[in-house]
Amino acid sequence: MFDGGDGSATSRTEEALLSPNSQSLSANDRHRFSMENYQYDPKKSPSTNKLTERIRSPLADTVVQFDYEEDDTGKAKGSLASKYHILQLRLLRSFRSVFKGLGLAAVLILVLWLSFAPADPVSESNQWPQEPKTEASMRVNRKSAYRHKFRAGSSMLGDHRITHGILEVNSDSTVHPIRLLLEAAQEKWQEKVARQSRTLKEAVDEYKRRYRQEPPKGFDKWWNYVIENNVPLPDEYDQIYRDLAPFYSVSPARLNRRIEEASDSMHTFTLKVVEGEVTAHYSYDTGKVESGEQRPNHQVALIQPIAHHLPDMSIVMSVSDTPLNLISWQYRSELMNRDKQEDYIDDEVDRDSVNGHAWACPVSSPLFNSERNKKGDRKDGLLDMEGKTFISDLREYMNICNHPELMEQHGILIGKNPPIESLSPIISLSKTALHADILGIPTEQWVEGGTVPAWSDRKNDKIMWRGSNTGMHYDSTVSWKNSQRIRLVNMTNRAGGGDIVTMSRGAGRGSLSDLADITSWAQLNEELMDIKFTGKPLQCDKRDGTCEQIARDYAFTDLKINHEDALQYKYIVDVDGNAWSARFNRLLNSGALVLKATIMPEWYSDRIQPWVHFVPLKMDFSDLYDVVQFFRPSSSNPHGDDETAARIASAGRQWALTHWRREDMTAYVFRLYLEWARLIAADRNSRNFVYSPDMEIPKR
């Protein structure tokens, strides 16, 4: 169905340098084009509008000020000015000037309070930009004795506090936080599996409870496909709702006009479903666009088994790796607060109004106020116990609004200043939590499971990664040294002198601080790490010396690891490149324990469980050494939990074999395109599903 090829454009860019003067549209050209579009331009001055009059640049050094007449979503509040009735007593009238003075003072106090008050992580900045969160199912309601909620939106796991998806280690605790994270994740996964719908009626009811609307027409056909192909987790398709919810406030006529316009782009291809047959159309030269023929063919193969259940429709997809669409939080809130079936709004946005990722966040969020929220000498837990953290909720960690530090750690964000636009009806292969793209399914490097060595038979227990220095375009105008792949290679090869402090799993009764291990950084790298770039520097500027600097300062090797040798490793790192990592499926299938660093949600993100099927890593890799020391036993680390490592590796492979099949991907796009067909229908109500008991079929 899908040829293995050399991988996605993300992986293929690892084979050639960018060529600024080239006229072709190779993957490298697309990468350069993306970099140019996102490149920060300090000379560009946003045009004045209502929004910029109220609020200065989100990255300004001064404290953000708010207009007292509007809340964070831009909705009008009642005026604070005193209102006087014409029949007021003469005595009260004499104090008019006093009340005016008090009113002005009250306004000033309110402005200062709004400026300095912390964000409410529950009601606003803890929400993903896409939409208000869907409600958790009530079918299973188990209580975790070690998890206690706090009003501020943080929680506790044992003695360790969790805020915005990050566990902050309490060094006085006697319980290793990873042990608690493993237990909590396993419980969460079991609850998710147990609460899934077993009948069409249950699936319809769960859909209506989660999304507060009827399922789309054809939902019964989708359910039949799920049952016949044993597709697991039939309720976990929240990503589709997150992506499509804002479009309900845009008229079908406007969406269809934009689809026609987008289909003419040199950066898109169009899938047309006509009378149950699907075909791909594009106007670009496939010889000049890498994967320009492969990607449309793969998408046709995904849809073809269920095309006869779809109405006639056009689907426009981006042929590029990177996301394209960014809308402001203020406008997203407007879209989300409109009735979903009527009262359409004009969502045309002046492209020159405002630029930058911060505008996709609430004005009280840490990213919007990143300058105000910056902390000096922030510790990352590498050199001492203070500042040690782990990911407890990967989805929350991906919320860049709450984690402005990611802006300096991922190449897709570093130095970028994208324009705020209108909603785009284009399906993209990748996105961040900030982007408004509709997420599709990339198929590059998808593999069917084969035979792999047993965990106990693997001969190499070092932490392995090989790849190119993709991730961004490197030149002297951007701060690339902290980008994800550069940082990974630098940390694990060129740490220099000094010691690293790691937590021990020792069976003592002392605190984590008492039991901490202090080891030479260079010694740990030599003992644990096998991480290097391959080939030569890519996507870098030769003229300003950046390519030469990367080649000189970072570890490269010409020795490639073949497939058989790779299967001998127990631990493999997976890290984003220019966009998503296309290798993840292949790595899970390998039976190794995958340590994954990403900020890119994918179609399966609601259907997989970190700490059960893989181990999540922070994008700065400050947790890498503690994670490795927890799992990997050695003569210097006899308490490493090899048994748990093997169990997670096995669970990850089993998940890939049962949850990432062709049928699982087709089930996702089946449901996505039923939803899309309703959105672009002239009468959306006519595309609602109506349940009947005779539609039920028994589940095998």
TrEMBL record:
<protein>
    <recommendedName>
        <fullName>Glycosyl transferase CAP10 domain-containing protein</fullName>
    </recommendedName>
</protein>
<dbReference type="InterPro" id="IPR006598">
    <property type="entry name" value="CAP10"/>
</dbReference>
<feature type="region of interest" description="Disordered">
    <location>
        <begin position="1"/>
        <end position="50"/>
    </location>
</feature>
<feature type="domain" description="Glycosyl transferase CAP10">
    <location>
        <begin position="381"/>
        <end position="683"/>
    </location>
</feature>
<dbReference type="InterPro" id="IPR051091">
    <property type="entry name" value="O-Glucosyltr/Glycosyltrsf_90"/>
</dbReference>
<dbReference type="Pfam" id="PF05686">
    <property type="entry name" value="Glyco_transf_90"/>
</dbReference>
